[in-house]
Amino acid sequence: MERIAYIEHHADILNAIIESSFDGLWICDAEGKILKINRASEKINGISEEQVIGKNVSQLVEEGFLDRSVTLEVLKKKERISIIQNLNNGKKLLVTGNPIFIDEKLSYVLTNDRDITELIRLKEELEESRQTSRKYLRKLQKVLHGEIGEKEGFVFCSKGMKGIYEMIQKVSEVDVTVLLQGESGVGKSRIAHMIHEHSYRQKGAFIHVNCGAIPETLLESELFGYVKGAFTGAKKEGKPGVFEMANGGTLFLDEITEMPVNLQVKLLHVLDKGTIRRIGDIVTRDIDARIIAASNRDIHKLVNEKRFREDLFFRINIVPLKIPALRQRIEDIPLLLTHFLKFYNTRYKKSISIAPEIANMICQYSFPGNIRELSNLIERLVVMVQHDEIGMEDIPNYVMQNVLFPRKKEKSTSFDLSLKGAIHNFEKEILKNAIKLCKTQQDLANLLGVSQPTIARKLRQHGLIRLVEWN
Known about the structure:
By secondary structure, the protein is of the alpha/beta class. It is built from 20 helices and 16 strands. The chain folds into four domains: 2-115, Beta-Lactamase; 159-324, Rossmann fold, CATH 3.40.50; 327-404, Helicase, Ruva Protein, domain 3, CATH 1.10.8.60; 419-467. Strands 2-1-5-4-3 form a five-stranded antiparallel sheet. A five-stranded parallel sheet has the order 7-10-13-6-14. Strands 8-9 form a two-stranded antiparallel ribbon. Helix 19 (441-448) packs across helix 20 (452-461). It is elongated, with a radius of gyration of 38 Å.
């Protein structure tokens, strides 16, 4: 009796240990019949002990509850085995089967299972995060080595352009129509090309059509093409339009607001139906081209004035991207200046540098022509400068005047100063702007075309001596 009580006592202890396990535990006999599972296993597998006790694990596989059984593999190989097990409820388990030998005979299999569904999800997220980090690291390395821009033509550090760049990444992944808006020279065509290059259409053609540069009489044939004999002067073999040429790729309709209203109707039809008809043809052709449109005009105003169709506007304005002017992201100018200086030095086999105060002055210029104007300015300077460093004498007058005499918005308050007072304030403003561009009083005198003593006197007169560190 005491032995029975002893055995029962230790059986209770063993059962308590099994039930206290965080991992699921299964005990099967040498035939694969399930003898015991603990509460953790019930919770992990979404079953009750009554559902499986007495069943063979092979039945659970046949019923689709398990995709495979580690117990059967242990019985077959007679050694410890670990597998990843997929349950029909979507969970993934790390399962380890351990053979138990009694008198050198395999008598039982103890299976330990742990839910790793969340762990795998976290691992996948970590890997995705690592891939993203590697991508941004490559971008950063390109920036640090001056490579970005030469391949992508996109150099920035401003918050506004960071948002634009993120949007480019997003819209590149989906085949959606994009409307780019911004002043002339902000880089709309470069952004359109980037969207194409980052999309699954990158191996297809990228066709750029400036709707404002093609005469109205030729624009329709340029867009839709024509067949033999369609009109006087038509090629004998006919000609495909840009929609067909861009099939499988991207069609960039630049300055779309310059398109005549009658062609706007036809464009709307193409966007809605995905088909075109060449001029003079009776055959309808399917086209598969992603449309990116752009305009440097106030398209909302044109719609209100009935100069641009409202239905077409809604059709192309699915994802609008407003590109800020360069003067609205001044922090990008030093990066762009450095990029273009390196680019044109390489192109023209030169090694021209730029003085810090000149770079500072260029950053204060308003750039009405935006990035295109900055690029042209640096190219001109690199080509024309005869010495190693760009100096004040090399800067065009229009840039100097813009910096020294910046246009300011008129104030609503009345202007009732005397002529003498107005001249005094204007002179002080010129000196304050010029101080930013010069290292010495002599440089300032040379810039403004007066003597150094005059500059010293004017600085004292206007209380500007403390703004400078000159001797």
